[in-house]
Amino acid sequence: MQEMQLYEYAVVRIVPRIDREEFINVGLIMMCKRSKWLKVQLCPDPQRIIAIARGVDTTHMIKQLDIFTQVAGGAGAFRDMPVEERFRWLTAVKSTCIQTSRPHPGITPDLEATFARLLDELVK
User: Residue 119 burial (CB < 10 Å; 0-12/13-18/19+)?
Assistant: First the structure.
């Protein structure tokens, strides 16, 4: 029997117009402190973004998502940060066009399978 792992996850969102507070789920970030595991997957769909905000520059917004993969991967200044600090940095409350949901906890024997399930349910 596999050991149960405590994890936290947050949904990555694009908010094309902050004043309208509408958003599109575009990715998932998940972290397990004990396993020193952090994963991000982004699946932005420009057509969905345009559907709620015609005329918005989706190319620029989608490019801004790159920071999630850079931080999660420990690039640059984030290289020496533990996974839980990188997760907290990415999920901090922001009033920008790229935001995350509040973090949610869970427990699972299989981090990868849980990540795939949550990505399918919440983003795809």
Answer: buried
pTM for the structure as a whole? 0.91
Beta strands at 5-14 and 98-100: parallel, antiparallel or unpaired: antiparallel
pLDDT of residue 64: 87
Q: What are phi and psi of 64, to 5 degrees?
A: -65, -20
* Residue whose entry in the numeric block shows the structure tokens 């906890």: 105
pLDDT at 1: 67
51 φ, ψ (degrees, to nearest 5): -60, -30
User: Tokens 């991000």 correspond to what residue?
Assistant: 40
Mean pLDDT, residues 104-113:
98
3-state secondary structure 65-124: CHHHHHHHCCCHHHCCCCHHHHHHHHHCCCCCCEEECCCEEEEECCHHHHHHHHHHHHCC
Query: In whole numbers, what is the pLDDT of the chain averaged over residues?
Result: 92
